[in-house]
What we know:
The protein is of the alpha+beta class and 633 residues long. Helices cover 19% and strands 15% of the residues. The strands form seven sheets. Strands 1, 3, 4, 5, 10, 11 and 16 form a seven-stranded mixed β-sheet that branches. Strands 2, 6, 7, 14, 15 and 17 form a six-stranded mixed β-sheet that branches. Helix 10 (481-495) crosses helix 13.
Amino acid sequence: MTENSNDSTIVRAAIHPGIGIARVGNSENEYYFAPEVTNPPAQKPGFYRDSTGALKREAARFRIYGYNAAGKVVRELTTENAEITWSAHLVNQKAAWYEFQLALDIPEAIKAPPSLRRNAEVKGPARQLLVIDPGRISISGANTQGCNYFFDKGKFFNKQVYLGELRTDECGRLVVLGGRGKSESKDGTPAKTFANNNGWYDDTSDGPITATVTIDGQSIPVDPAWVVVAPPNYGPMQKSVRTMYDLMTDVYIQAGRMPLPKTISFTQDILPIFLRMSNLEWVNKGFAAQFGWESPYYFQDSKWIETLASQSDLQKELRQQLANMFREYQRDGKAPQPWPWLYGDAMNVPPANTPRQNAKLTDTQLNMLQRWADGDFNDCNPTATPPASIQEVPLNEQPAMLDRAALDFCLADAFHPGCEMTWPMRHATMYMSPYRIRHRPESEKPIDYGSQLTPVVCLSEVGPLYAQSPGDITRWMAVPWQTDTASCKFAYYAGYGKKYDPYLPTFWPARVPNQVLSRADYDIVMDRERSLEERHQAFYKRSNWFRTLGDGNYESQINNMIAYFDRMGIVEVFDGPTDADVSGFPAKMQVEVRDLDAPEADETIELAGADPLATVNEYDEPIEKINRFPQGL
């Protein structure tokens, strides 16, 4: 008997997105929702700060959809048509976990420093003092909020730490807010290193999202979700060339749990790869020169898009050449020239003898590019207007859209360790289904892996890459997160060889910009009283995004990032010039918007028009983040 896809009887439900992303911010009360569509419209400049200049938090919003026996969405479940009780459990385990040295699933990890316990001097039951665990919180109803739903009962030693809170919106959907970017050491000791600062905590976190649903008195099973509270997004309109969605899709395909797409969508699968590289012009000067406005590969140009979308045999050789530009580990993994120009998991200065010095696209993306090169693709409608909100998406497509939108704005670049999540996410054992993390039962006690976590143990059947508990995703990340973010500057200065290129490769420009169009230079571009030459010079000039941290030494700057992370610029969308006699400027520009109270003195370190390394202090000791193989490979 064939199941009826039009059946309106709900037999199960699922929470979407399967993995939601919230982000910290220091605004006391204001927040915004994380993207719910893959191409959200740009917000007005200044949107990401409140009236005091503080950074708003990014809230993760979760919805529940009811499915019939055929697996078709019947409707979204809200307080109007169901009884819903949400539960969430946010935990920060970073200080009690193991040091990050290198991704433990790559061969080079054997040569990296050992992954010892963080805060190893704290032993036995006292190690629970390192875990910030406020317990599980439940919430129901519409427009519910208040201190009863705060994750503020957890402690780091004797310090009470606020990790966030739960709310519901007007329809009873769950809203998760994370911490406020507070990072501290228990005794005032300054941070020293990029990832493993003993005695420190931050207020990022992660954990399961569950719900009970009753419809007309009948209990309905609900697929659970997960939330990750990550650092701020300093490039909210940016996506990396390989997103976390791309990576998780590839994980399931390579594991044989999801088939390769039968058909390739040019608009959904191919064009975004090229557009993302061009869009990175606003956060990296190297990408701007090759892929930016009026550059050789400005893929956002309508003529380029028309060419890329053509299935004509006349363009077949060009398609093949473009596909060949992307890095293949077996062919050219060690070379810095192939695309994308991003560091890999095993980056080192000087470059190590490994193909993973630089990043590559997923195997699925490379497969799609080759099929595109062969002319095996369809859906050539790149000028179609994408949905601006989830309400514009057909009901049956909304769950998949929510899943993808959340992960499209997460990075899968160098897991060193990364921005939102890191290398465990490329293991299929982590998931119960695509884009949905496997939950560990609360009754199941965690395993003690001893004083050192080795690659062999980590990748074994008893290792930590299976069912997950609250705090298990973010524990692999840097503590505090600010020190890793700030260390990108020093990786930049020490890692980009003058003999090759001062700007490339780069770490995570989509989240941690390198060079930006400053507001001061944008104002010159828009000034009709200036000469066209002056305006063009200002447009192509780029300022060092890290200049806000001052020009002190490494320790000074990573601690400035902890104290003043909110002063760093947000790269936002502005209108370009509209005066009739001007030419040579894009209609939209992405411009750095900083805290209004940031001192003017920090404008002095510039990267344009001179040697970008000339203004940087010399350091006697190698920066740990880029010195992963002190004994070589």
